[in-house]
Specification:
The chain is an alpha/beta fold and 742 residues long. Among the domains are: 2-170, no CATH class; 217-245 and 303-432. It is 38% helix and 14% strand. The protein contains 23 helices and 19 strands. Strands 12-11-13-17-16 form a 5-stranded mixed β-sheet. Strands 1-2-3 form a 3-stranded antiparallel β-sheet. Strand 18 and strand 19 (627-629) form a beta hairpin. The chain is extended, with a radius of gyration of 36 Å. The two termini are 49 Å apart. GO terms for molecular function: endonuclease activity.
């Protein structure tokens, strides 16, 4: 958002020194030091722009231009052979005149050095009798270096210049990292502003300051909206720009103008009578004399004055009449309405103002026509969710674009295009938007793509391919669930309702550090979790999948209780096709941590880990020797891990059947068979609710395969928090060494 404001609205949003990437500051400082060194050495200064190119902020704009629209981009056309289609322009923030920049910087450095020398001489004179003499006083005078110089003089010496790009060299991003083309050394900037008359930019910033009185709103030529303005201020400004009858009146305005003039005459007469006694008293003091001008009082009424008060906007309150009495009209001031409603009304009103300003509606037209209207209208909205509850957020994002197109010359017309860009942290806003419209910002640590932490942009329209079954499934699934996936540090995909209810409670009870992380938990069956694979891979989202073995007999026909050495196959599509891409149950039971983890080369922060039931050593009631149990699903794995706890648990349904199976004894195999039969007809969600109700829930031991997965996830999140990648890699090496030692 800030980058687009800087380049597309430089007057209202000028550049600052921090818009130069921090890792480039050392290069800029080095350039300044080379200038100073060359000056002292008497060398010739090479004031070429080439050393600056790699550190300058740039923005590449790509336009699609139809044949009949070339007149809008005549200054951007690269060659005479170009006949429409893709057209690119690079906006680069660069020095206006390197010679003048050099002269001013070196002069400022010389002045600073002279002041330091004078200060040192004065200090030495003051302490000339001291033994030993004190160190020179520490003194920092601007500019300390070239970056310090530019922190005050940036706008004086830098400007935005446009350059044409070659459409044939446009490269698609590689792993979501842009690949901008290099400009030829002989490239010359385009004269003038090629975007003038091409793009109209409006924006709604995140800080809107609702309910606060704003100063400086009396200028009727001010923008129709301002940062933090109340709705009444916006309404007054909108009236001044589009509705005021004193500006270019038409026949519809004559009645209003006559009424204003009649009111002004009546008020003038009343004022003259009211001030007559006061002026007579002043005349008794000797003024005015015979030749002095005499004071008169007159009014100047403007239509906009009717809106220039704090109660210009009020909200009517519903009142129920009683006993046939007349219902009074009750109104509350604007500040008494909820901030959420103020935000919604304000944003909608601003969008209307933007649209009407772009289309020169009403008094703002002044002869404007559709032929001289900018063909592109770019509207930027930051975090519209402020103060809005979930449903209103969804309503706003569904209606906002329609508001911007609600004009007779817009609608479905392609002659004038509106682009709405919304930045949000709200899953409710993302929930209402199709994948083709979503851009996901993924943060990368220092050392992965640059020397400092940066973000790459993932275009989610490219995740699944157009019209694929997987896209339809994932879109409908996320809309049926939620879109928290886009805002999480990690995701946990679980098999069913029991895991969905109990795993978060396990985390709260046993994994405090994990509980403090932003983790989204999605319930999605094992046969469908793999459908999220393209999305998770594109997001680079750390993911733990908690699923079931889903064992089939040797023929692959029927689900059976897990067993070792029975030639069983898994029916779980995630295990077969994603992680670990293994179908044989014996191999799955023997798989180690590395087999259950999927990593991507060149991306040490992204990994997918699967957790499923594995053989478990248990001591059944009445038995002294440990036996091997083969859990079938989450519920019996939990029971096997907590045999003593479940044996004394009172309840109904599966809980009761598990308790009876444990009490019946007969060893781990017999207990497992009883649980397996109970699971075929039991209600798993009811089981989870019964477990949640127990008094000593925190004493429940987390099933081993889930505990292993959660501990892995915690370790990965700790590594992800390290901003400098080499440290993260060292941490991973130490982890591997510890595992090898264990």
């Amino acid at each position: 958002m800030l980058a687009m404001r800087r380049f597309l609205s430089p007057r209202s949003c000028p550049f600052e020194i921090h818009d130069f990437t921090l890792c480039h500051w050392s290069e800029i400082i080095a350039l300044g030091e080379s200038w100073i060194a060359a000056r002292y050495a008497g060398d010739v200064i090479d004031l070429a722009v080439d050393p600056w190119v790699s550190v300058l902020p740039t923005l590449d704009l790509w336009l699609h231009v139809e044949t009949g629209e070339m007149h809008h981009v005549r200054d951007l056309i690269p060659t005479l052979d170009w006949e429409g289609g893709r057209l690119g322009v690079r906006l680069r923030y660069e020095p206006k005149d390197l010679g003048l920049l050099y002269k001013d910087f070196v002069g400022a450095v010389s002045d600073a050095e002279a002041m330091k020398e004078a200060a040192n001489v004065a200090a030495a004179e003051e302490h000339r009798d001291a033994d030993p003499p004190p160190d020179p006083p520490k003194l920092t005078i601007w500019p300390a270096n070239l970056v310090d110089f530019l922190s005050k003089k940036l706008s004086t010496h830098f400007t935005i210049r446009p350059y044409s790009l070659d459409p044939a060299k446009l490269a698609v991003p590689d792993k979501s990292q842009a690949r901008p083309q290099a400009l030829p050394a002989v490239s010359l900037p385009i004269e003038g502003d090629p975007l003038n008359g091409l793009i109209r930019v409006h924006d709604i910033p995140a800080q809107r300051g609702f309910g606060e009185e704003q100063s400086g709103q009396d200028d009727e030529d001010a923008p129709a909206v301002g940062v933090g303005s109340r709705l009444s201020d916006q309404l007054r400004s909108y009236y001044a720009k589009h509705l005021d009858p004193t500006k270019g009146p038409d026949p519809k305005d004559l009645g209003a103008l006559q009424a204003i003039e009649a009111a002004q005459d009546t008020f003038d007469k009343r004022l003259t009578e009211s001030f007559k006694a006061a002026f007579t008293e002043v005349e008794g003091m000797g003024y005015p004399g015979v030749t002095d001008p005499r004071p008169r009082v007159s009014t100047r009424l403007k239509a906009i004055d009717g809106l220039n008060h704090s109660a210009a906007i009020s909200f009517e309150v519903d009142v129920i009449a009683q006993d046939g009495a007349t219902t009074p009209l009750l109104r509350l001031p604007e500040s008494n309405n909820g901030l959420g409603y103020q935000n919604l009304i304000s944003m909608i009103f601003r969008l209307m103002s933007f649209r009407d300003a772009w289309m020169r509606v009403g008094k703002a037209s002044k002869g404007a026509t559709i032929t001289n209207t900018e063909p592109l209208h770019l509207v930027l909205v930051e975090e519209p969710e402020a103060h809005l509850h979930a449903q209103v957020q969804q309503v706003f994002i569904k209606k906002a674009y329609a508001v911007l197109r609600a004009h007779e010359d817009l609608g479905e017309s392609k002659m004038l295009s509106t682009q709405l860009v919304v930045s949000t942290h709200s899953s409710h806003v993302a929930h209402e938007i199709s994948f083709s419209c979503l851009r996901y910002f993924r943060r990368l640590p220092a050392g992965m793509a640059a020397r400092v932490p940066v973000s790459t942009v993932v275009n989610l329209s490219e995740v699944f391919g157009p019209g694929s079954e997987t896209e339809r499934f994932v879109t409908r699934y996320l809309r049926a669930q939620h879109a928290d996936l886009f805002f999480a540090d990690a995701a946990i995909l679980v098999e069913g309702p029991a895991e969905r209810m109990l795993v978060p409670n396990f985390i709260r009870a046993h994994y405090d550090e994990l509980n403090q992380c932003y983790i989204t938990l999605l319930e999605i069956g094992g046969s469908h979790a793999h459908r999220l694979k393209p999305l998770i891979n594109h997001l680079g989202l750390l993911t733990l999948i908690i699923t079931d073995l889903d064992t089939l007999d040797g023929t692959g026909g029927a689900l059976v209780q897990p067993a070792k050495g029975a030639n069983q196959k898994t029916n779980n599509a995630t295990l077969k096709t994603w992680v670990p891409s293994v179908e044989d149950v014996d191999a799955l039971m023997d798989a180690d941590a590395a087999d259950k983890t999927l990593r991507v080369d060149g991306d040490p922060l992204f990994a997918v880990r699967v957790a499923y039931q594995t053989p478990l050593a248990v001591i059944a009631p009445g038995s002294a020797e440990p036996e091997t149990a083969y859990p079938y699903t989450f519920e019996d794995a939990l029971a096997f891990q907590n045999l003593t706890f479940f044996s004394g648990l009172k309840g109904t349904g599966l809980v009761r059947k598990f308790s009876d199976a444990i009490a019946a004894g007969g060893g781990a195999t017999a207990i497992g068979e009883c649980m397996y039969r109970a699971l075929n007809s039991g209600k798993k969600a009811e089981f989870a609710l019964d477990v949640l109700e127990v008094e000593k829930f925190d004493s429940i031991v987390v099933p081993g395969y889930i505990a292993e997965g959660l501990e892995w996830l915690l370790m990965q999140l700790k590594k992800k928090q390290v901003e400098i990648l080499p440290q993260a890699e060292q941490t991973e090496q130490s982890e591997q060494a510890e595992q090898a030692g264990a």
